[in-house]
């Protein structure tokens, strides 16, 4: 028995006191309307409607049950309205997975502007410090490095490619000297993000595109770019960091880029927007995806442009 439909039939009978009118209202036959009422009464083991050849009337139990049915059906209608609105009008809580280092340095302006445009959405942001299963953890959308998440049927859209650069504090370079070629790094204190793809081998491409491979034993390895930046600012050594993490430091002169004629080719990072590939994507998810793609397009230069080199 379809209990919700049986309840709708019963309410229509109670309102019209007519099987024929109730059936017409719901687009079903008289026989089906009668069958739904009989099934409902059998399910409840009580008579809801007194019937004779001339009229219908609700029993005492029918009066009580009709009030409860109205409450249930009204609540279901309200829930359905909210759900339908949620597919067209962004609202509710959006669960975002975000790479910790980038988020702490650059994500707040995006979130601020999104909430200004979509005030009915609430954001729940989880900063990722380790790999997660995107779908299993119940995230709606992510702004992450691809290696930070896994999950089947994910849609991935590239937002920003960030190049790694070698930087150090002026105080460190004043004491240790400025390297002029990649091989010089072997005589410096080297700081790096926890090795993943290069295992200590770093590839530097010269202006003539020739590549030079240097094996470096890092004095400090850390899995967070912001902590590595702090180590570089403290004069602990030369660090390889995503360019967007140190733009303010480069502009302010608290860090200096070294080996500016060379490009590190085996440590590029690509920031990616991910969300589950579902048939029905909620309005809140769709709005955030579209907004983020446009925001990164508009702000790409600000997020990746560094000042003129200050040292070689």
Automatic annotation (TrEMBL):
Pfam families documented for this protein: HTH_1, LysR_substrate
Keywords of the record: DNA-binding, Transcription, Transcription regulation
Taxonomy, superkingdom: Bacteria
Signal peptide extent: none
InterPro entries, alphabetized: LysR-type_TF_proteobact-type (IPR058163), LysR_HTH_N (IPR000847), LysR_subst-bd (IPR005119), WH-like_DNA-bd_sf (IPR036388), WH_DNA-bd_sf (IPR036390)
SUPFAM superfamilies: Periplasmic binding protein-like II, Winged helix' DNA-binding domain
GO terms of molecular function: DNA binding; DNA-binding transcription factor activity
Domain HTH lysR-type: 1-59
Family to which the UniProt record says this protein belongs: Belongs to the LysR transcriptional regulatory family.
Entries under PANTHER family matching the protein: HTH-TYPE TRANSCRIPTIONAL ACTIVATOR TTDR-RELATED, HTH-TYPE TRANSCRIPTIONAL REGULATOR
Name of the protein this chain belongs to: Transcriptional regulator, LysR family
Highest classification ranks of the organism: Bacteria, Pseudomonadati, Pseudomonadota, Betaproteobacteria, Burkholderiales
């Amino acid at each position: 028995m379809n209990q919700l439909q049986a309840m709708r039939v019963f309410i229509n009978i109670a309102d019209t006191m007519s099987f024929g009118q109730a059936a017409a209202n719901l687009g079903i036959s008289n026989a089906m309307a009668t069958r739904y009422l009989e099934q409902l009464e059998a399910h409840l083991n009580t008579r809801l409607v007194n019937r004779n050849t001339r009229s219908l009337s609700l029993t005492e139990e029918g009066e009580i049950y009709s009030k409860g049915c109205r409450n249930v059906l009204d609540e279901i209608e309200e829930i359905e309205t909210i759900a339908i609105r949620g597919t067209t009008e962004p609202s509710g809580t959006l669960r975002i997975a975000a790479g910790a280092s980038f988020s702490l340095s650059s994500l707040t302006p995006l979130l601020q502007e999104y909430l200004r445009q979509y005030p009915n959405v609430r954001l729940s942001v989880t900063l990722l410090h380790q790999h997660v299963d995107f779908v299993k953890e119940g995230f709606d959308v992510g702004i992450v490095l691809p290696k930070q998440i896994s999950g089947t049927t994910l849609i991935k859209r590239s937002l920003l490619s960030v190049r790694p650069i070698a930087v150090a504090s002026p105080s460190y370079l004043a004491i240790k000297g400025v390297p002029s070629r990649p091989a010089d790094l072997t005589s410096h204190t080297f700081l790096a993000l926890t090795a993943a793809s290069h295992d200590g081998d770093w590839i530097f491409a010269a202006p003539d595109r020739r590549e030079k491979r240097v094996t470096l034993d890092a004095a400090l390895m850390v899995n967070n770019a912001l902590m590595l930046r702090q180590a570089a600012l403290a004069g602990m050594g030369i660090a390889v960091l995503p360019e967007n993490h140190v733009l303010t430091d480069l502009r302010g002169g608290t860090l200096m880029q070294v080996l500016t004629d060379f490009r590190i080719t085996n440590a590029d990072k690509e920031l990616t927007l991910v969300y589950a590939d579902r048939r029905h994507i909620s309005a809140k998810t769709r709005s955030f995806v579209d907004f983020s793609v446009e925001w990164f397009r508009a702000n790409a230069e600000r997020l990746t442009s560094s000042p003129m080199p200050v040292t070689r």
